[in-house]
Amino acid sequence: MTTTEETERKCTNCHGPLRNLGVRHLHVGDDAGVLGVFKESDEDLLPVELHGCVACGKLDLYLPHLRKKS
Description:
mainly beta; four-stranded antiparallel β-sheet
């Protein structure tokens, strides 16, 4: 999923607007399996929500599953 909607979040670096870049899955844990080939297991993936500053380019990562429900 790739979105480019601006959010109410502000950059912690320059206070510019952040753009929602969607959720990506980051690989965590060991980075190599047999013969150095990446292991692709759902257990090794961490979902993170990416937000990029349109002013300075800083990238913020958030854990969507820990977000407070309003």
